[in-house]
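User: I'm new to structure prediction. If I give you an amino acid sequence, what do you actually give back? Let's try with this one:
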Amino acid sequence: MKSNRLQIYARYLLGLSFLIMSVYSIEGVAMSSLLGTEVVLFSPLIGKITYQGKPAANAKIVRLVRWKDDAGESDIFHTTANGEFSLPIKTTNVRIPMLAEFVISQEVTVIYNGSEFDIWLKSTTDIDEYGGLGGNPKNLRCELTDEAVNQENFNGLFSTSCKWDLIIKKGKK
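Assistant: Good question. You get back a string of structure tokens that encode the predicted 3D arrangement of the chain. For your 173 residues, that looks like this:
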């Protein structure tokens, strides 16, 4: 009788565990149900900002990432005297239900000489580093007087005034 109760209890726990993992896991990773999955909210971005062809020295860069609410999370950076900038990777751990789609909205605005310029507007469902771009953009340059252009062949909506020479696939140098 005791072993019968243990079997019932074991089946109950197994069923409950399966239900919890099914609801909270992503891509079948069992540990994500407890710890969450590391999500890249914004991949590293290195480049140069210019205004009328000259370096936008000490320009203020506001990176806004929305993923859990409309307010989002913003970070502030500045360009160097040569207009160069480096935005670090931004990650978080999230438990994503199996039947949900995780959407990230990214905006980069530059404030220079009293004016605001939107240089990067992107929405994506990719959660891997450079997932939405397919790799790391090399020789990224953003001219503040250029109009933003809708980009094709990228996962999600993407509009930017920045240009790059090529995309280096992840794992290649």
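You can read the tokens as a compact description of the fold. Here is one thing that stands out. Residues 16-33 have pLDDT under 50 and may be disordered.
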